């Protein structure tokens, strides 16, 4: 893990001040702020590429039968649990848990990749805590 500045606090001013931070610890934010920050990551991924992210959420696994690929994600819900955003992750050791759904903490380097003409966000070299 990289030892750098963390984003802390529950104000939009603090959470949006991540342009110089290379470690984003979403576990220290309120549910509303985490959801907002993940939303920003999905819409402005270029602002997050290369940053080390730590997040808590619900582990999810999806298998695409058409491509025979597996995708793993950490799903974040907003404070009322009516909306959800997720970030895919790729574990550095390749040892993924089964298909069960459970709470997880994941850390990794934010990155993007292209697939089928679309840009996707992922945490690479990720580890589960």
TL;DR?
Helix content is 13%, strand content 44%.
**Radius of gyration using CA atoms only:** 14 Å
The proportion of residues in beta strands is: 35-45%
Q: What string, H for helix and E for strand, traces the elements in order?
A: HEHEEEEE
Largest sheet: 5 strands, mixed, barrel
Report how far the terminal alpha carbons are from each other. Answer: 12 Å
The mean pLDDT is 84
- List segments where confidence is low: pLDDT < 50 over at least 5 consecutive residues: 1-18
What shape does the CA trace take?
Answer: globular
Structural class: mainly beta
**SS element count, helices:** 2
Q: Report the helical percentage.
A: 10-25%
Strand order, largest beta sheet: 2-3-4-6-5
Number of strands: 6
Q: Could you please describe the fold and organization of this structure?
A:
- The protein is globular.
- It has helices at 12-15, 31-43; strands at residues 23-25, 52-64, 69-77, 84-91, 103-115, 118-128.
- Strands 2-3-4-6-5 form a five-stranded mixed barrel.
- It has two helices and six strands, in the order αβαβββββ.
- The two termini are 12 Å apart.
- With 129 residues, it is mainly beta.
